[in-house]
Amino acid sequence: MPYSDQELDATTRLRNLSEVGAAVEVDDNIPPRRYFRSGMEMIRMANVYMDEGNYENAFILYSKFITLFVEKLPQHPCYREALPMDKANIKRKLNDVFPRAEKLKLHLKDRYAKEHDKFLVEKRQRDEQLARDRQRREEEEEERRKRLEKEPGRREQHTKIQAELDKWTSIEGYDRPVRLDGDLFDWPTDGGQTVQVQLPSDGVVPLVPSRQLKPDVETPSDRLYTTIGGIPSIDRSKKPSSILSPGSNAAQSWSTLRNVTVPAILMSKFLSLALKNTERNVETCGILTGKLAQNRFTITHLLVPKQMGTSDS
Fold this sequence. Notes:
By secondary structure, the chain is mainly α. It has helices spanning 10-21, 32-52, 55-72, 84-149, 152-170, 220-227, 250-255, 264-273, 275-279, and strands at 178-181, 184-188, 194-198, 259-261, 287-293, 296-303. Strand 2 and strand 3 (194-198) form a beta hairpin. The longest helix is centred in the middle third of the chain and has 66 residues, at 84-149.
């Protein structure tokens, strides 16, 4: 997400976080009373996030609550018709949410600053280590070159080996082998791993074609998809976002779906309860209830109300 990149400074990350919290849209076709109900749920979820230490999602929901009821909902055509009791309740919540959001903002800014400082220190250490490794390799290569100059019999072999390395470097998709010691190399493979290779005495290594150059083999499933017009693609960005989602848009909301924990015995109990209806080809519907904790829904109860069903409802 745009606010989780520690490479960014604290001010930029906080600004990105605030933009996510301000991403609220109001549909004029939805009556204001539903937004009032959603607002109370937003506060409840934000408080859960606070208790769990998930301060970013808590700040996002507090910000969405403020944006919704201070900027967006008052522009709704039916806002004046809303019940005064609902408006008064939201106003009291706003008086409580504003200081919470401001306190969270300061806390997150301080945390982001510390994370950014730590990132810079670690990056500097990595760069210094890379520079030391590069210098060491250059010194080792220079030492080998000087040693070869003192051994005329190995000079020709070294030239052949160098020519083979140049061949690998010139082929697209291949990484250059890394010399370990003498004629011992870390030789790259197609799987991204390396193997240690001792070059033959003549210094010539046959080139193995890359798997990327291997022609694709058509399988029956490939022909099936080709016949029916290809594998269907799903554009999740068109999925409508929930106003209660901490994500800034629909594309983020699907990626932040919560896990649901269901007791193992629940399925067998429900099937046993619905057995008589199932034998008569009648559907049985139940309602799963539970609690939200650690960004996960845990099912605690199954409610099966009185109902009349058919084979498909």
